[in-house]
Amino acid sequence: MKELHTDDLSMNSGKLFREQMIENFKAIEQEDKDDDQALSDEVADRKKGDDDEKAARQSADDGLEKRIKKLEDNSATHDEVETARSYMDHKAERVSWGSDGSTFTTMLTRALEDTQMQELIKNIIKG
């Protein structure tokens, strides 16, 4: 900003005082105009930045919504989890007591498919 006339204002000459005041007001008006332009430029930059940021936020939101939907689609309710837990508790108890048919069948099938077990069975049958 141009230096304003402050301490050097002429009080003896009306014409010089008037010219100094005009210079001061012109300098103030120019500074005001420059400030307005700078503010307008900053607002425009922020608006442009806001649009870019808004698009980035929207994209992130869309991604989160997709993840939430996927989680909701693959999630179980509390009742479903409790039912599964109860079933597995009972199954573990049956397995530990040797009374679970499906586990017994699975284990027997695996044992019969094992080549060492097949040899052992042949030896037992031969006597």
Explain the overall architecture:
The chain has four helices and no strands. It is mainly alpha-helical and 127 residues long. The relative contact order is 0.04. The model has no long low-confidence stretch (mean pLDDT 82).
Contiguous helical run count: 4
The averaged pLDDT comes out at 82
Label the structural class.
mainly alpha
Sequence stretches where pLDDT stays below 50 over 5 or more residues:
none
Oligomer: single chain
- Helix percent reads over 70%
Topology summary:
Blueprint lengths: L13 H61 L3 H20 L3 H13 L1 H12 L1
Characteristics:
127 residues; mainly alpha; 83% helix
In short:
The chain is an all-alpha fold and 127 residues long. It is built from four helices and no strands.
